[in-house]
Amino acid sequence: MSNPNPQASGDSAQPWARSGRQPRIAIIGAGMSGIAAVVKLEKAGYTDLTVYEKSDRVGGTWRENTYPGLSCDVPSRWYSFSFALKPDWKHRYPYGEDIQSYMETVATDFGVTDKVIFNSAVTEIMYNAPHWHLSCANGAQEIFDVVISATGLLHHPAYPAIEGLENFSGAAFHSARWDHTAQLKGKRVGVIGTGSTACQIIGAITPEVDEMHVFQRTPHWVAPLPQVKYSASWNRLLAALPFMQRMTYNYYRWMMVHTFSAATIGNKFMKGLINKICLKHLADNVPDTALRAKLTPNYDATCKRLILCSDYYPAISSPHAHLITQDIAKIEPAGVRTADGQLHPLDILVLATGFNAAAFMLPTRVTGKGGVDLEQQWDGIPRAHRSVALPDFPNFWMLEGPTGPVGNFSLIAISEHQVDYIISMLDRMKAEGLAVIEARQSAYDDYNAAMGEAIKTTTWATGGCTSWYFDKSGVPNLYPWTPERYLKDMLNPDFSEYRLVK
User: Is 339 helix (H, G, I), strand (E, B) or coil?
Assistant: First the structure.
C-alpha cells in the first residue's frame, strides 16, 4: 500500500484532473462488474486501478454459488463480455462452473487479476474532499480519487427466521454456502424455498436422494429451459468467423429484450404467451391434478423473475418427492415441523432462501459529504440516480446499483454500459479540470419520482405477487422502462443532472 497521507504524495494532494495525473481509482469487488470496469477503464486510458476482493478468487456470484444444477437463465452467447466473446461455450444456457471458468480466464487474459488485492474486504470508505479514504478488515488503509462499487446485487445470503434452525442435528446450509462434504445419496433431504435456485437444486439432486421434501410458501411460474449442447463443429465455425459470434450475441440480446422484458412493461401479447407456455409446461410434466393445483400460482407469470427449468416438475412429481405447503412452525433436531403438527424427518436441510437484495455494498460503511451515512440515508429503501450515482457522494459510482434493469436480462451488458457512463464522467472531469462530479439532489428526486410512478403500471406491481424485488417501501426496486432506454441514457449522459465543481 502507498502512503495513506495525500499531503505526502505531492500532486496527489490536489484533485487529479487539475494536476494532470492519473486518477487513483478503487474498485470494490472482482466479480463480473469489477472485471468489466478494469478492462474498459484501462482501454479508456485510466490505468491506476486497485481492485479489492473479499475472497481469494475473482468471479463474484459464480464463485460463491456452487450448488448442484447451477445454471444461468441468460443465453451464454449473450452472457459474455462484449470485448471477450467466447466461441466455445458448451451449452446455450451456461452452467455455473463454465461461467466461473470464463470469468477467471477473462480476468487473466486482460490482466485484471494483477490489479486485485485478494482477501481484502472493504469495511469503510469515507469522503474527505477531494479524496475517498478506504479501510479494509485486515487493517489496510488507502486514499483514492474515485471509488467504484462493483459488489453486485445478490451476495448477502438471507437466512430464514425460523425457530429452532440452530438445533437441527443434520447438515444445514444456505444454497450459496453449499456443503460439498454432505453426502446426498440415500438421504432424506429438505429444501426450503421454491425459487430459481431451489428448482435447479431439486431437479439436480432428487434422483439420488432417498426422500425429497420441498417446503413451498408460494408457487412460482416455471418455463422449460430450451437447453442445447453445442457441437464441436459449430463452435469451430464460430471461432473461425468472429462476426458470427457478434451476430449471435446481438440475436440473443434482441430476443430477451423483445420477449420477457417487453412483457414486464406492458406487452400484453407477450405476457399472455409466456403465461400459456408456463401452463403448458406444468400440464405436460405434472400428471397429478392435486399436485398440479399446488404448483399453480395465482399471479401473472411475469410478476417475478421467470424461472427457466426443465427438470423441476419431473423431480417434484417423483414418488419419493413431497411438496409441503403447510407453514413451517419450527425446526427440531430431527427435522421440520409444520403448522399442522406433522414432523418431516430429515438428514439434510438446504436453505434456498435467497439474498438480501436491498444491501448492495452494505454493510460496508459509506460516509459521504458532510458525514452523510449511506445506510441511514437508504434506511431499507435503496435508491440512486440512474442506478449509478448519489447526491452527497462525490466521485463515487455504483455498478448494478439500486433501481437498475435486472429482470431476466444480462447483467454483464448492463454493467458494461454503466462503466461506459462512468468513463464519460471521468473524461469530462479530465477535460475541464474538475474536482467533483456529484448527482444533483433535484435530479435524483425527479428521476426516482418518475420511476416510482412508472413502476405502478408494470407487471411487477400489478401482477398480484410479492418478490425479492420489493424493498421496505413496498415498491419493486426495479427499472420500469425498456432496457433500450436505459442503455441509451448510459451512452448519452446528461451532465445538467450533476454538479460539476472545479
Answer: coil
Q: Which helix (H) or strand (E) holds 412?
A: helix 411-432
DSSP state of 191: E
CA atoms of 197 and 487, how far apart (whole Å): 28
Q: For the purposes of burial, counting CB atoms within 10 Å of the CB of 333, is it exposed (0-12), middle (13-18) or buried (19 or more)?
A: exposed
- Give the distance from CA 175 to its chain's centroid: 15
Grid cell listed for 190 = 429438505
DSSP codes joined into one string, 430-496: HHHT-SEEEE-HHHHHHHHHHHHHHGGGSHHHHSS---TTB-TTSSB-S--S-HHHHHHHHHS--GG
Q: What is the pLDDT of residue 259?
A: 83
Helix axes 242-258, 232-240, angle to 10 degrees: 110
- The x, y and z cell numbers of residue 451, run together, are 420511476
Q: List the alpha helices (DSSP H) in 267-410.
A: 268-285, 289-294, 312-316, 374-378
**What's the pLDDT score for residue 12?**
66
Q: What is the pLDDT of residues 21-72, one digit of tens each?
A: 999 999 999 999 999 999 999 999 999 999 999 999 999 999 999 999 999 9
Backbone dihedral angles phi then psi of residue 28, each to the nearest 5 degrees: -100, 105
- Look at the chain and count its residues: 502
The verdict on whether omega for the bond into residue 130 sits within 30 degrees of 0, i.e. cis, is yes
Kindly report the backbone phi and psi dihedral angles of residue 409, in degrees, each rounded to the nearest multiple of 5, phi listed first. Answer: -140, 155
Is 116 within 8 Å of 30 (Cβ atoms)? Answer: yes
Nearest-angstrom CA–CA distance, 227 and 75: 9
Cell of 483: 432496457
**CA–CA gap between residue 355 and residue 68 (Å, rounded):** 18
Provide the whole-model pTM: 0.94
